[in-house]
Every structure is written in structure tokens, then in C-alpha cells.
Amino acid sequence: MARSVTPQRKAINTIAAWAVGLVIFFPILWTILTSFKTEAQAINDPPLFLFFDWTLENYAVVQERSNYMRFLWNSIIIAGGSTVLGIIIAVPAAWSMAFVPSKRTKDILLWMLSTKMLPAVGVLYPIYLIFIRMGLLDSRAGLVIVLMLINLPIIVWMLYTYFKEIPGEILEAARMDGASLKEEILYVLTPMAIPGIASTLLLNIILAWNEAFWTLNLTAAQAAPLTAFIASYSSPEGLFYAKLSAASTMAIAPILILGWFSQKQLVRGLTFGAVK
Amino acid sequence: MATQHSRSAARIMMAPAVILLLGWMLVPLTMTVIFSFKKYLPLRGGDLGWVGFDNYVRFVSSSTFWPSVQATLVIVGGVLAITVVFGVLLALLLDQPMWGQGVVRILVIAPFFVMPTVSALVWKNIFMDPVNGLFAHLWKFFGAEPISWLSEASMPSIILIVSWQWLPFATLILLTAMQSLDSEQLEAAEMDGASPLARFGYIVLPHLGRAITVVVLIQTIFLLSIFAEIFVTTQGAFGTRTLTYLIFQRVLESQNIGLGSAGGVYAIILANIVAAFLMRIVGKNLDT
Amino acid sequence: MGRITLDKVTKSFGATEVIPPLDLTIEDGEFTVFVGPSGCGKSTLLRLIAGLEDVSSGQIRIDGNDATMVPPAKRGLAMVFQSYALYPHMSVRKNIAFPMRMANMPQEEQDRRIDAAAKALNLTDYLDRKPGQLSGGQRQRVAIGRAIVREPSAFLFDEPLSNLDAALRVGMRMEISELHKKLATTMVYVTHDQVEAMTMADKIVVLRAGHIEQVGSPLDLYRAPRNLFVAGFIGSPKMNFIEGEEAAKYDCHTIGVRPEHITISGSEGAWSGVVGVSEHLGSDTFFHIHETGLAETITVRADGEVGFKHGDRVYLTPRTDMLHRFDTKGLRIDA
Fold it and tell me: Could you say which protein family the record assigns here (chain C) (predicted)?
């Protein structure tokens, strides 16, 4: 139950919260605004806030750079592919842990989580070496595999916590009703778990999209996603603020939107259920 | 509780995930450990044989090691302090009744979704550039000399950038925890004559205790291995070379695999110490 | 047909034995209720019959055929769960159809059975709704509908009424009894509520810690409880137990007398005491009498109009023909 407060109190809260919110959001807002300016206006002193000649030219220029679309496409394939693959592997595992728990289930879950804690840099060279041997360096397939593996513990965990909320009796009812294991998972569990699976999907796309260690270190020209594309702006193109902003806006916009949809699940996914 | 049949089915269905993760963990880890005992320079002769603990000793005794540990600790500590303190304050604020709460939440959370390379680059150029950056304009407006942030105040700058990225995470988790606080508890305390400050100190803060611990542990694990923010901004210059970045340089820039791997083993041990605490909390939670 | 026989069935979880060797026969067409306090193993026993748990040893036969290793779906039993276990993403029609769909039954036959079940259970108007849009009682009926259409050889009910409010529970109790009369199919019903057991059962099985304490018709159990546990468990309010001198008068260790078999009077009687709390239910009044020197409290049922007050001295007279006698082991001593 929300406690009722006086309108004045509420107004003060509102102003304070909005002020803080806008300060935190400002760098993003400013980037988006700058992306619509000309290069000269972008570095104008004093800075121009809203009153400038709005232009889409920067987006056109960034688009024209023949390879932008490829970076974008790589990001989509890598983030989407690793997540979908991860979910296909994780659903049966999470089913087992949630509905047929054994004494070792807890240990397995915690062990899976612990693999997520391995610092990537500690195993950078071995992975690099394996990738060269297997011809996976700078390939999308290679990144799909690596990002799937680093996010698999989170996927299993999230699905596990969602599955745990589905009463076991419903699956038993299906079993009594004559459903085989496959039918039980396909017709009963999956439809019921759709919201959970969807938010797992969403959060992991975000995590994979923004992953910036393996994507920077295991790709070159062919498979580089947007993280690497933006990093290439480091210099000297970084001085073209408007174009940098346009490229940045395009790189973060899809994820910002997805992220806003999945903010509730975020807490759950990233704390492994330790905070509810 | 289940039948024999479903138990064996469960084992089979768990196998792919377990085997994949086991391979992902053991294979590279074993290789790193092996390399760490070798003199291994791919560009200057390749595998030059076993050297015992030489790499471990050299990594720790090199002049870059302690500064990198210090840089790592300063960044982790600084970001943790900022995100936890401001996270609690923000969560308190956002938990109050107000108009447009949903929108404010979205504004506050947004930075977490910005990819690290973008946020590093935007901060570096558009805000912290000493000539055209927004901060430079602001300083000039007040008649001050613009600061070359990433070279003159490199550490605070990096901490600012990383804190901006992680503050939403801390806020979101603390807010979620705060919302799970039974409001009747607060009302009971109010009836018992507790002032707002006392209510915060005796009820809200203890309630947040576990969430704060979780925030600290998870952020520590991620912060120990921040990479893109430094890669894009200072490339490890101006005293911002963290342990992660140092190992990265040993491995990929100087191609000294043995030395880098020894560093990697140190990093793994360090992360495991933090992870052990996190596991304990998560594990406890599993029972309930 | 639906005759279920348990032959030396045991169940252990790890080292804990929840069901020690147990024999039981449930006759075809019988309404059998498993009753006992929580943790007595009654639900586990039902789940063993259903096949949702493996027996650790022993044999389960259905109509004489060994069903011990038969998977749940193939046993020809239908189950109604405590939480109803409806599929939330399917409409009522799809829920009821699910077992038939799994059995690949022809569509016309499915529709015919759904319509018949819906009519019998007053669900015709709700067939296209989702379970979330139904009341508790309606959900319960959908769960029953899903069981009926399979035309099982026996129905298993796992505390089906415990999630309903009191008024609805009475109504559903009647409906299930009615259904049993109509279908004349074996029903096995688990509950912790002795009122449900008494009102619905042909045969009650009282369980404690996995052991069968007594099997019999409701009136058998009420009239001749085999031991103190059954005596205390069946009947509401609970039977009064009196030990010591008073019991010795009847040559036993403990005597038991039900509250309804004691008359209360303001002037004379065999025992005396002081009125404590009295519960007025309208039709009946239950007096809790203290300071009798027999037991801490003696509960007495009286007519609703009897009006003793807190602190009044009263006199009690038990009906000696309705006394139950128990020995030192708590076992019944028959007259």
C-alpha cells in the first residue's frame, strides 16, 4: 500500500526525482541531440541545446560508410544467435533442475555461476589460440559460441527461477493426462513459461550486444560487431562529434528500447535471484 | 520427488549445458596454467620451455605490477563507493510517491544499456575533450581554465564514466529491495515513535543489507575486469593501467604469453575470492 | 472396474522411510478417504497409486494387474490436484480436452464428452474462458471435468477442497458425493479434514506416520475407534480423555467420552466443574469445563439454548453406554 502524502510533498519528490533522472540521462540525451547537428554546431561555444538546424545528414553519412550495415548485422547475428542457442541448451537443463531436483542441483547451479566469474583476460590467449586452430578467429560463429558460453549460466539461472514458479502439480497433471516428456515440455511447460523465456531472451540479447571484451579481441574486419565499430571511432574520427553521435545513437537505440522493456527482469537475472 | 524415469531423463537433459560449461572452464584454464610455467613468446621463438615459477615472480616484481593493482583497487573502490551511496539515495528518492515515476525510472536505468565502447567514447570526446568538450565549455563559461580530463585527472574521469554506467544497476537492485520492504514495518516503527532518520537507520538500511552486499559483490566481479572503458579512453596511460589491462598488454601487445598467463592466474584467484562470497549468499538464498 | 490393491508397499526418501510396509485393498466403486494429520504420508500414498512416485518395494495392482512399474498415464487413473493444476494458457475446453488429445481420441468423441462433462458440472457457459477468469469453485469443477472425460477406472483426489472457502467447500463436498453416486467409479480421496472424511467416505483409512491406524466405515470409526489416536482424530469437537482414578473405576487406563455424550446440569451430576469458555454456535453450545479434577478441560456439547456463564459451577454426567475404554498402550478394550 502506497502511503498517501500531501500534494506539496509529492510535487517536491517529483521535481527532485526528475532533476536527478535528467542529469543521469543527460549524456544520452546530449548524444542524441548532437547527432542531429552539423559538425560545426556540434562543437559550437556556447553549446546549442535545441535551437540548431536539425539535420539527418550524419545518419546518412554513417549509413554510407559501406561497412556500417555489416557491423550492425554482425551485432544482430552474434547477440541473437548466441542467445537463441543458449536458450535451446538451457531449457532442458533448467527443467531438470527445477522439477527433478536432486542433492547436487544446488551445487551444479552454483558451479555454473562460478564459471561466469572467471575473468576473461585470464583465458584470453588460450581462447585466441583455440580460435586460430579451429579457424574461428574473426568469425561470427566463433563469437556466437563464446558469447553463448559466457551467458549460459545466466540463461540457465533465469529460466530456473522462472520454472521454479510453475507449480509442479501442473506438470504432474499433464503426466497423468497421458503427456509424454516431450509433450509435457512442449504443450504445458513452454507456453506457461513464455513470459520468463521472453525476458531471459531480452536480457541476454542486451548483455551479448554490449559485450566488449571478446568482441573486441576476437574480431577484425569480418565479424566485428557494433562495439568494435564504435571503438574504431576512438580517433581521429571521434573528433567529428555529430557523426560519432549518430553512430552511437544507432548502436544503442535498439538496446535502449529492449532494455526498457526488460528492466524488471534485469534485477532478477543479474542477481541470480538473490534480490527479489 | 519424482520417479526413476524422470530422474534419468533429467540427467540426460542437463548433460549438454554441463558438458559445454565444463569444457569452457577446464580447457582454457588448463592451458593458461600450463603457459604460465613456460617461457612462451610466439613472435620471438615460440615455446622456449619450462621456467617454473619465473613468470609468477617476474609478473609480481615488475615495476608495472603494483601500480596496476593500485589502479584496479582505486577504480573498484571508487566506483563501489559512489554507486552504493548514490544508489541508496536514489532508490530512496524513487521509492517516494511522485508523478511520472515510470518515466524517471527509465531515465535512470538508461545508462546501463549503453554499450561500454559508446559510453567511453561519448564521455571522452563530447564531454571531456579539453577543447570542444561540454565540460570545457562549462569551465570557460565560469572563466576557468578547461581541464584535460583524461590525462590530468585520469582516475577520477574513468571512475566517473564507469560509475555512470553502474549507478543504474545499483539503484535498480536497491530499489527492488526497498519495494519488498513491508510498509507495515515502517508504520509500526512510526507508531513506536521512530523519527524518519531512525526508521532509515534501523529498518530500511538493515533491510537493504543483503541487496547492498549483492551489489558490491557483483559489481566487484565486473569491475575487476573492465576493459573497453580503458581501451577506448586512455589505453592504460596516465596511471589507469589496471591488472586486467596489464595482462591484456602482456598477452596481445608484447606477446609474452607466459608472463601474461601468470598474470591471468593471479586475476582468476582474485576473482574467485570475491566470487566465493557471492556464492555463499546466492547459495543460502537457494534453500529458502 | 477399479479395484486397487497395495501389497507390502513401502516408500523411502533417502534414508527416511515415509511408508512402512503397508497392505490395503480399495474395492471397486468404493469411496475411500485417506485421512490423517499433515505429514502422515497420505498424499505420498496417493501419489504412489497415481504413479507419480516410484514405490521403494512392494506391489500395486489395479484390477489384478501389476501396475507397479506402469507410468502414470497408462494406469487408467485420473487425478484432481489440490491446486487444481489447470493449464493456465488453455481455455476450459482445451483443459478438459487435453487428456483426450494426448490419447488421440477422435474429435467428435472429444466434443461429445466435453459437452456432457460441461453440462454435468455447470460449465457450459465457461468453456471458452481461461482458468484465470474462473472462481475457485469453477476451477475445481474444471479439474473434475478433466478427470471425468477420461472415464478412468478410479479417481484420485488430493485435498481438492482445501483451497476453497468454507461455504463453497460444503457445496463441493455434496457435488463430489453426488458424482460418486452417479458414476459409481472408485474414488480415492485424501484430506486432513475429518469432517470431509466422515461425510463423504464409504471407507475411511486413518493414517499416522505412514501406518494405517484403522480402516472402516465412518460410523465404525466413530463408534469403535481402535486406539486413542483414532478416537481423538475422528469426531468434532475432540473426544475427552480421562485417566487415573475415574478410569480405574471402569477397569482401564484411559476412558474416552465424546462431548455429545455428556449431559450438563446446574444442579446435579457425576462430575462437577467450572465453566470456562463457551462457544455458541446457535444450534449447539460447546462448554469448556475446568477444575473437574479429571482432565485439564472437559468439552461438553449442549443445546444451543443452554446458557451457563463463565465461572458457573456445573455438573456433568457421561452416558456410560457410550464410554470408550483404552488400555495402557492406548488400544481399545472391547466390552
Answer: Belongs to the ABC transporter superfamily.
Dump pLDDT digits (tens) for B196-222. 888 888 888 888 888 888 888 888 878
Q: Which amino acid is at A23?
A: V
Q: Which residue of A has its CA nearest to B99?
A: A14
Best of C44, C102, C156 to mutate (most A CBs within 10 Å, chain A): C102
B1 and C CB contact within 8 Å:
yes
Each residue of B163-181: pLDDT tens digit?
999 999 899 889 888 888 8
Q: How far is the C-alpha of B265 from the C-alpha of B53, rounded, in Å? A: 12
**Cα separations (Å) of A32 from A9, B149, C226?**
33, 23, 83
Give tens-digit pLDDT for A88-140.
Answer: 999 999 988 988 888 888 888 888 878 877 788 888 888 888 888 888 888 88
Report the gap between the CA of A143 and the closest CA in chain B (Å): 13
A183 CB neighbours in chain C (<8 A) are: 102
Let me know the angle formed at the C-alpha of A234 by A232 and A238, rounded to the nearest 5 degrees: 110
C-alpha cell at position A52: 540548431
Question: What residue spans in chain A does CATH classification 1.10.3720.10 cover?
Answer: 65-271
- Does the pLDDT of residue B62 top 90, yes or no? no
Instruction: Please report the sign of the dihedral spanned by the C-alpha atoms of residue C211, residue C217, residue C218, residue C222.
Output: negative
Q: In this predicted structure, what is the pLDDT of residue A105? A: 85
Per-residue pLDDT tens digits for A222-259? 888 888 888 877 766 556 888 888 888 988 888 888 87
Is residue B3 less than 8 Å (CB to CB) from chain C? yes
Confidence (pLDDT) at A216: 86
Kindly give the parts of chain C with pLDDT less than 70. 335
* A65-271 to CATH, choices 1.20.1600.10, 3.50.50.60, 3.40.50.720, 1.10.3720.10: 1.10.3720.10
Tell me how many degrees the CA angle A6-A10-A14 measures, rounded to the nearest 5.
170
- All residues of chain A having their beta carbon less than 8 Å from the beta carbon of residue B16 are 89, 92-93
Please report the pLDDT score of residue C5 as a whole number: 93
Region(s) of chain C under CATH 2.40.50.140? 238-326
Q: Which amino acid is at A79?
A: A
**Order of strands, sheet of C324-326, starting from the edge strand that comes earlier in the sequence:** C240-243, C254-257, C324-326
CATH of C238-326, one of 1.20.120.450, 2.40.50.140, 1.10.443.10, 3.90.249.10: 2.40.50.140
For residue C165, give the amino acid letter.
D
Domain spanning C4-231 has what CATH number? Answer: 3.40.50.300
Q: Cβ of B1 and C53 within 8 Å?
A: yes
Residue of C82, C87, C110, C113 for testing the chain A interface, max A β-carbons within 10 Å = C87
Q: Which domains does chain B have, with CATH numbers?
A: 65-240 (1.10.3720.10)
Q: Which residues in chain A have their CB less than 8 angstroms from residue C86's CB?
A: 170, 173
> Has residue A62 got a pLDDT over 50?
yes
Other C-beta atoms lying within 10 Å of the C-beta of residue B246: 25
Q: Which residue of C has its CA nearest to A188?
A: C87
Provide the ipTM: 0.83
How far is residue A75's CA from residue A61's CA, in Å, rounded to a whole number? 20
The answer to whether B24 faces chain A, any CB pair under 8 Å, is yes
Q: Among residues of chain A, what percentage have pLDDT more than 70?
A: 90
* Average pLDDT along chain B: 84
Contact A210 B121 (CB under 8 A): no
Burial of A51 (0-12, 13-18, 19+ CB in 10 A): exposed
C-alpha cell read off for A158: 533465469
DSSP-derived 3-state class of residue B104: helix
